[in-house]
Amino acid sequence: MKTVVSAWKGLLLAGHRAWRWLAVGCCVVGPGLTALRADANVYLLGVPDYRWYGGCYGTATGNLIGYWDRHGFPDFYTGPTAGGVAPLDDYGDHIGIRALWTSKAGRDGRPADLPGHEDDYYVEFESTAEDPYVTAGRPEHSPDCIGDFIGLSQKKWHNMAGECDGNLDG
Whole-prediction pTM value? Predict the structure, then answer.
């Protein structure tokens, strides 16, 4: 049986390999491991600091996955940027890491003629226009980045019977 613990300030786990990252911000503690209370604040080092790109949720999630790729889960990011290890920033040659949360034709080893997330869904900041794949009359790409799974910039998730008025481009 597994115990789910919230990953809030003050909690540590005995053995970092026990962590399993989930979109809800929790971790799963395996059998025989217990959550420990920290006596002091814990500062994580080696956390990527990517510039905002394509949305807050995508960028923040990219930072989290970049951290775990560098600390115990080396296959979270497997693209060609920085030799397949999530870099600590997205400047210069590291710009390809953005494909982790918003894939794009020609970015991070993707063929220039193969549309990705940004090509299919992004028009401009706060745009209410149809998604570009719709106006181009082509099918969507297969989901392959964080943005695809969280609805980033996807018009199809906008104003769902008054329940959701989010996911505008940006």
Answer: 0.70
